[in-house]
Amino acid sequence: MAKLSLAGLEKNCMNFGQILYVLGTACLPVVELKGAIAAGRIMELPLWETFLVAYIGSILPVPFILRFTQPLMARLRQTKPLKRAAHWIEDRTMRKSMTIRKYSLVGLFIFVAIPLPTTGVWSGALIASFLGLKLWPSFLVIVLGNIIAGLLVLTISYGVF
């Protein structure tokens, strides 16, 4: 049997904490995959470990956003104090929806795949929900677009090329 050293245990705990940090960062709106990969790079985590954890973290909220945005927004619009906020969120999100309106799922893919500020899985899922696109095709397209965005950010962050 191998002995566990305190230094080895400490290193594993620190690595687990870093992985959780990357995962949690990737779940956040705006920051998403792009910020999580940068965080993993700063913490000097291995390239593919960072990508996988950041990717999984960024995808976790998508089915919930796609499924529950419409009912939640309808409920918010019915409450007087939150009605204004609901309209603001929808108006702000829909301003970015031109490509998706024009090209539907292909536009959604492009929107998510290009790693620019205010594009990504959160905005893409919100727009898909507001436009009434079907849940599973939207989810699949967002998953694929996020892979492309992640690989682009990975090559820049880790200097692959």
Short description:
The protein has helices at residues 6-27, 32-42, 47-59, 62-78, 80-94, 98-113, 121-131, 135-157. It has 161 residues and is mostly helical.
Question: In words, what does this structure look like?
Answer:
- With 161 residues, this protein is an all-alpha fold.
- Helices cover 80% and strands 0% of the residues.
- It has eight helices and no strands.
- Helix 2 packs antiparallel against helix 3.
- The mean pLDDT is 89.
Describe the secondary structure blueprint for this structure.
Blueprint: H1 6-27, H2 32-42, H3 47-59, H4 62-78, H5 80-94, H6 98-113, H7 121-131, H8 135-157
Helix pairs in contact: 1-2, 1-3, 2-3, 2-8, 3-8, 4-5, 4-7, 4-8, 6-7, 6-8, 7-8
